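Example 4.3 (complexes with small molecules)
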Amino acid sequence: MATDEKTPKTPHELLSFIKKLKPPSQFHLLSSTIEHCPITVVVADSQGDIKYANTRFAQLTGYTVEEILKLNLNFFYPGKQNTDDYKKIWNTITAGEKWAGEFRLRKKNGELFWGLATLKPLLNPPGQISYYLCYLEDITVHKRSEQLIEHLAFYDPLTGLPNRSLFNDRLKLALEEAHLLGHQTAVALLDLDRFKVINDTLGHIIGDQLLQLVAKRLSENLQEGDTLARMGQDEFIVLFPHINNFREALNRIKTLMEALQEPFLCENHELQINASIGICLYPEDGEDHMSLLKNADTALNEAKNSGRNHYKFYTSQLNASALKRLSMETAMRHALEREEFQVYYQPQVSLRTGRITGMEALLRWQHPTTGMIMPDQFIPLAEETGMIVPIGKWVLRTACLQNIAWQNLGFPPLRIGVNLSGRQFQEPELVEMVLDVCHQTGMDPRLLELELTESILMKDVSVTSMILRWLNKKGIKIAIDDFGTGYSSLTYLKRFPINTLKIDRSFVKECLTNTDDTAIVTTITYMAHSLKVKVTAEGVEDEKQLDFLTNLGCDEFQGYLFSRPIPAPEFTALLKDNRCLSRPHPLSDNSPPG
Ligand code: C2E
Ligand code: CA
Ligand code: CA
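Answer. The structure with calcium ion bound is encoded below.
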């Protein structure tokens, strides 16, 4: 065995060793040296098929020499032919040049290892490549320590989280991507409240444990792609690389805050800790990572100043409206289950007979602290958040049940109008929902009138007209609400099965004083009648308006003059009184169509 000091230790030594040998006298010595040298040696032919491999190579890869001799060099390179690295290697060696570098290879057991390889083409006398000589050194251990060093440079040793410098890298990358793809990115800087007190009183061992637990808890509540890093002693930062709007950022942050609510157990101490959070968004609050970090810090200070366990957005304007909306949104989510919604009813009165012919269901929110909230204040938000869908269904159900209750009390069947929002119209199950409610409550669909605005009708004319026809076939009536304020054309109106036009109260208000409004109300009424559609005037507040509308031939009205919207028991009283228009009323010649 050639284990003397002449045994080559490196590829370089091996090569010069081979060069010094004079074949064939020293052939045996040569093969034995190569066979047992601590570096792997492989020889492959010009196609890469392995023709020789030494023992070390067999040991390293886990294959027997016989097995190896059936393989091609490619086999050990897991990336295979498609990678650029692979192409680079083969381009170099097929050009007759030596290639050296690191790459990962595969062992028989599937394990990957790092090899420092040298591939050298061997040329025959005419100068063609006849073989490839390959030396390989296992550098996995070295690689690991390199990675460890890298880890130390980019990760916080206490919590194992990315540190500031890795966070900055990730933030910069996220911003580039957000810029390219046009989405938002959020950065939330988080400072633990009262951490210093815990650290000072219970000692830094407990303090350290707490930080580790906090890091773990926060990590568990992130989504894939988010980065949580430790910035300072009790300061953490979160990157949400892709968010759609500030609401989403807020929801994610609230998840983190809620996660911290649960106490932490550190060596028999049950510790409660909260965080103050400063949030800022790209691109609104800063275009680059420096300004975002700075602004998140400003927001954090504001959060701390406004008491502990708070969050603040950098943009103060966003704060005020966001907070208000958010608290309303949260309250609204509970309002249904806490039964804070109520339906009021406003009578609709015939201008011919002076009697109540129907009512409109109008939503009210009896907020436990704010008091009564009117629909204009919360319906837009309910539409935006989609909550109008369950709320609208509840209104419909409540109105139907109430309508039946009145019939059960012996009052004549009255029509009930229920408002539908555009958002409800986007629900594919709308028709089914309405029919279900009628079915479940026992409501006669012919007494139900759904009120929609022009904008809903015009949004997707063909789909809407199909839905309306469907409803109409089941006997359900359709009214166009706030008519005149929207943008709809007569041609379109003819395509919808409409029963009623409700003239918006803004026109009714000045129908006697403003000539334009006089003309509008008059035209709408004539037009509606020519289309065999009933006309209801909204917001009638005085007798003069009533006279004008009566003479015009308007069919019904709704307004404070007769009654404001009232709760069901008051409406019952109204029905019991058999209340009708107090003054004698000229019977119009126009009999109401439909
Ligand atoms: P709207 O459908 O046009 O309802 C008529 C509004 O006019 C009601 O306001 C009613 O109180 C008011 N009003 C009636 N008579 C008079 C009057 O003589 N003078 C004046 N100044 N106002 C009168 P309300 O109840 O505040 O409702 C406002 C809007 O909120 C409704 O307008 C409707 O668009 C929406 N809304 C109410 N309830 C619901 C609901 O259950 N679902 C949906 N999607 N929207 C609803
Ligand atoms: Ca209405
Ligand atoms: Ca209206």
